UniProtKB/TrEMBL annotation:
GO terms for molecular function: hydrolase activity. Transmembrane segments: none annotated. Signal peptide: none annotated. Gene3D superfamilies: alpha/beta hydrolase. This is Pimeloyl-ACP methyl ester carboxylesterase. It comes from the Bacteria. It comes from Oikeobacillus pervagus. Residues 43-232 form the Serine aminopeptidase S33 domain. Pfam families: Hydrolase_4. InterPro entries: AB_hydrolase_fold, AB_hydrolase_sf, Hydrolase_4. GO terms for cellular component: membrane. Keywords: Hydrolase.
């Protein structure tokens, strides 16, 4: 485990394997252990699991904004000592992956987004975020248990991610949901020129409609996972990990 001391906070990340680094970006509250099912990819690339500030073992005094999370990715890239990275953004973590790519396009080899949306235009997804904003502040342990059970079926893994989630700063956790609720990059997608792969579970109807915004991106790769909902990195890793590996091999 690596710790990066910054002014007022500490960033924690883990790196496994060798080769092209891919930084995995977690959704609100969940932290780096969201991606334990991607650790097997270390045989073919460097897997980088990060706790964004205010999450897991990364600290912060009170709050964080989108610019801060983008800075966290850049801090880790610099600490790794590499010129370019791949990004994997899951759910609202895709917001950070997209924003980093717009700001630092020369530092990105390619982007994989799982259950991505450049703007929220679905009432179910909107209310999912509004409920997250409320519960992260008022009932964080209940929300942590819901997230743990929805992502993992194994009791040990559920407890592992639960213990990770409850470490999150409640203000940062809530603000992360709020940032995603209000985020929009649809006006910038026409300028996207980085290799992009989109992963969607075919049963996640309330998210899948957002794919339309990405059709303008040249050569975008869209993968539909049959009989799958939103939790692709944890519940359908056997099907998406080969896609991740092939994408990295193609664009490294």
């Amino acid at each position: 485990m690596e710790y990066i001391e910054k002014e007022g906070y500490t960033l924690c990340y883990e790196a496994y394997g060798k080769g092209s680094p891919i930084v995995f970006i977690h959704p609100p509250g969940m932290g780096r252990k969201t991606f334990i099912k991607q650790l097997s990819l270390q045989l073919n690339m460097k897997v980088v699991l990060l706790d964004l500030r205010g999450h897991g073992d990364s600290t912060i005094s009170s709050s964080a904004m989108l610019d801060d999370f983008v800075e966290d990715i850049e801090t880790v890239r610099n600490h790794l000592g590499v010129e370019k990275i791949f990004l994997f953004g899951y759910s609202a973590g895709g917001m950070i992956a997209q924003e980093y790519t717009f700001r630092f396009p020369r530092s990105v080899k390619g982007v994989i987004l799982s259950g991505a949306y450049p703007i929220i235009q679905n009432k179910i997804l909107e209310w999912e975020h509004r409920i997250g904003i409320f519960m992260a502040k008022s009932t964080p342990k209940i929300l942590a248990r819901i997230l743990a059970v929805s992502h993992f079926s194994n009791d040990e893994e559920q407890q592992l991610i639960y213990n990770q989630i409850v470490k999150s700063n409640q203000n940062v956790w809530s603000q992360y949901y709020e940032m995603a609720l209000n985020y929009s990059c649809i006006h910038k997608l026409n300028d996207w020129n980085i290799p992009l792969c989109l992963l969607y579970g075919k049963r996640a109807d309330y998210i899948n409609g957002h794919v339309k915004w990405y059709y303008t991106i040249p050569n975008v790769q869209i993968e539909w996972i049959n009989k799958a909902n939103h939790q692709l990195p944890t519940r359908h890793y056997r099907r998406i990990n080969p896609i991740i590996e092939a994408f990295v091999n193609k664009h490294e």
